[in-house]
Amino acid sequence: MPYSDFKGWQAYQLSYSLAEEVFNLSLHFPREEKYSLTDQIRRASRAVPANLAEGAAKRRYPKHFIAKLTDAAGENYETQVWLSFARTHKYISEERFQKCHDQSESIARLINYMIRNPSKFGCKAHPQKEL
User: Fold this and answer.
1) Which residue range(s) make up the domain with 16?
2) Which residues of 108-117 are buried (b: 16+ CB within 10 A; e: fewer)?
């Protein structure tokens, strides 16, 4: 199974799309937020698809695969927190917040499904050789 097939995962596609939306939203954040909110929300949102890609490369080792998915889930929830701050400070509208939040919730459900069903994503347990 080619490792690049992760690009077909719905969780990857949605999280990549959300990271792009977050980037576009953050272009309009105030300058004083450049090294705080803007940087943090961009990093967190981009880390979700990046961790999914890393997980794909570690499918040979189920625990490592699940650990990367867990990292992706954590970054997804962190993105939600930063989106909430952006809404609270009126950097984004309620409508755009809700759209992004709903997409993030869909991503969370997909990642949780992947964690519960790793074999459906090419992760197979291999017997370890004794040293």
Assistant:
1) 7-119
2) bebbeebbee
